[in-house]
Amino acid sequence: MSRPQGTIAPILTPFENDGRIARDLWISHAKWVLSQGAHFLSPFGTTGEALSLSLSERMQALEWLVQAGISPTRMMPGTGVTALPETIELSKHAVGLGCAGVMVLPSFFYTAAGDNGQARYYSELIERVANPALKMILYHIPQNSGVPVSPALTARLSAAFPETVVAYKDSAGDWNNTAAVIAAAPDVAVFPSSEAQLTKGLASGAAGCISATVNLNAAAIRALYDATMAGKDVTEADAAIKSFRKVIQDAGLIPAMKAMLAVRSGDTRWLNLRAPHENATLEHGKALLTALGPSADHIGRS
After folding, report:
1. Short-list 10, 67, 58, 4, CA closest to 207
2. Are residues 174 and 182 in contact, defined by beta-carbon separation less than 8 angstroms?
């Protein structure tokens, strides 16, 4: 995988009632999302509550997926945290397992560090992982991290590490930034905010989407991707996936999706979120499933 393409699910992390990761639900959900058509999984993204998980939990849970028979070549886990030594540890672990790539936040909190500081952070990370198998997705989500990954920084890192810095995940929702990254770093695979920008993105040289709602709507999003790439008329399908996305996004992505899975599976462990989030409710899930109607009939079914 020199340049990733397609539909990628930053998978939800299910928890036991005592707060531990629910291994059985974690594995079964990952397999279901892949069976629905997602090209890749990205464990430990924002949707997976990654920054509420310890390093040891993240490494163990990634190993569980591999042990369950999911090919690491289908996984691009999030490995970015504020401390460089810990990002190195997570990234080395993922590369050592054979993962297709790692998705890395900029080092946040020190928001005045600017592009020069972030260039140092990413450069030292690449140099200290010291493995040619490392493929990196830069993760831009400034509304959460407080720190952007600018088009100029992306171009700089692509030029310095052309075989390593292969992709960019834009979660800001600002198409102007997405377009600027595509223009500034043409060798980088750019993934716009969600499937709501999938068709526009593909027409403009983007690579697909890394989107929370691939957790629940992978088959429809994959079908839209395939049809768009084949040059077919996707007007109706595009409108349908945008409508599906809006219902869930407006309801709060993580608790909304977990609530729906709890209702459909009958397993109330799906209602558990890690602090500082509040837990989801069955009532919320039922209301959302009613609102989505037949477009949600596939959820929870193999």
Report:
1. 4
2. no
User: Where do the domains of the chain lie?
Assistant: 6-234
β-strand pairing of 102-104 with 40-41: unpaired
The SS3 of residue 8 is strand
Q: Where are the beta strands (DSSP E) in the chain?
A: 6-9, 40-41, 102-104, 136-140, 165-170, 189-191, 208-210
- Predicted TM-score (pTM) of the model is 0.96
For 40-75, b where at least 16 C-beta lie within 10 A, e where not — what string? Answer: bbbbbbbbbbbbebeeeebbebbebbeeeebebebb
Residue-wise pLDDT for 124-151, tens only, equals 999 999 999 999 999 999 999 999 999 9
Q: Which overall architecture, per CATH, does domain 6-234 show?
A: Alpha-Beta Barrel (3.20)
CA distance 72 to 39: 12
